[in-house]
Input
Amino acid sequence: MKLLKKLLFGDLFDGMKITFRSQAPKHIYTEQYPSEHPKVSERFRGAPRLNINPENGETLCISCDLCAIVCPENLIKVTSVRNPATRRKDLTQFTYDLSRCMFCGLCEDACPVDALELTQDFELASYSRHGLIWDRQMLEEGPHPQRYK
Amino acid sequence: MTGTFLDTNELVLNMGPQHPSTHGVLRVVLKLDGERVLSSDCVIGYLHRGVEKIAEHRTYAMFAPYVDRMDYLSAVSNGLGYCLAVEKLLNVEAPPRAQAVRVILVELNRIASHLFWLGTHALDIGAMAPLFFTLREREEVLKIFENYCGARITTHAFRIGGLYYELYEGFEAEISAFCEMFQGRLDEYEKLLTENRIWVNRLKGVGILTAEQCKDLGVTGPMLRASGVKWDLRKAQPYSGYEQYDFDIPTRETGDTYDRYLVRLEEMRQSVRIIQQAVKKIPAGPAMAKVPKVIKPPAGEVYVSIEAPKGELGYFIVSDGTIHPYRIHVRPPSFVNLQALSIMAKGALVADVVAIIGTIDIVLGEVDR
Output
């Protein structure tokens, strides 16, 4: 039996059967990426976003600088001024250098007020290196990738 | 040089660093006599990033994402080894819930790593189809990682002291479904390869490494077990609650490339067994031990090793009592296993060198660090 199987190339045909069986359309797993946008998971760590309060449009960031301290690549710069009326720090500038970011999520963990968040946006390409250094406005608005039909 | 024109000369040939079957940027200097390899030398360092040096300028928590980038095919295992080492230094232990989830994710990672090895190894030998099948199943594992911690490859899944992410809804169901499906798929791979005559002829008797040679070189992992040594750190010095699970250590006798293939396939089956046991009884309770916000371990040194998919992965950490580690040394399995290449390749054909490099299962990110 074993010899017969060997003579008739049984081992090779067994493999061929599997190969041809998986060519049925229901076994196609390829994602048609640009035309079909893949759905990433809820916890996906993508583009950073600086959340704003939807009611009054003010930033949630309290300029505590914890994200900048905890970042392993030291790529976050937070500047603020002390507001004499409220005795609080007001955020002036927030720059985030995406070109050095490794999306480890430590800044997100450190943020005490859920202001900094890594979102599900993953299309981050830029034509210049400078375009990857996001300022406060960019962080609040999020990326605007061009959609190709 | 004397002799007739029929004499052959020794030929020195560079294989790599840009050779598709060296799995990254490994350069092997081969000294050839015709098709036979007289000697081979590995030249490494093309992917050196100085990870151990980077550690000296980071705090303990900050360094955790970097270890994922050494063996990027089994980032979760790397993270576990590092977390266990720092936990031992701090003298804390992760709670049982964290331990169970860690075991599940690490074993899933072992499957993912072995699947990638199987696909690329088969591709080196000339079988194209298994690559697509194994990557399809690996995708399922990566999807679980993405759902759990938000990243697919460089996961940063564990934190020092336990878990940061809670389990998502449907975690157990997703993993059970994967295990069910995966066992059938493993049988498919066996059908494609195990008895395939080309596969058998290319692998049997190639790159034989005896148990003695393995021990002399410090080779660990599936390569050691394929030579007949029953050594697995999960059994020998259990960590993270491995003693609760029932599984076997697959071994083979000959220690050739074909045996290493069989050992790794069997290991995937055992991993499925462990995952199925673990997922049934994830204990309730906290997922994070009491760890100070600023990790400042007492002065001292510690060595912790775990059984990564490729072999013994060890972390040696020296602490001087500050928030930065004084020194971190990594004992990567790929780097040590790569030493065996020149022994195995001696006298082999050039085409077999491709099979031998594949069977070591190296990741150059880990070899060079």
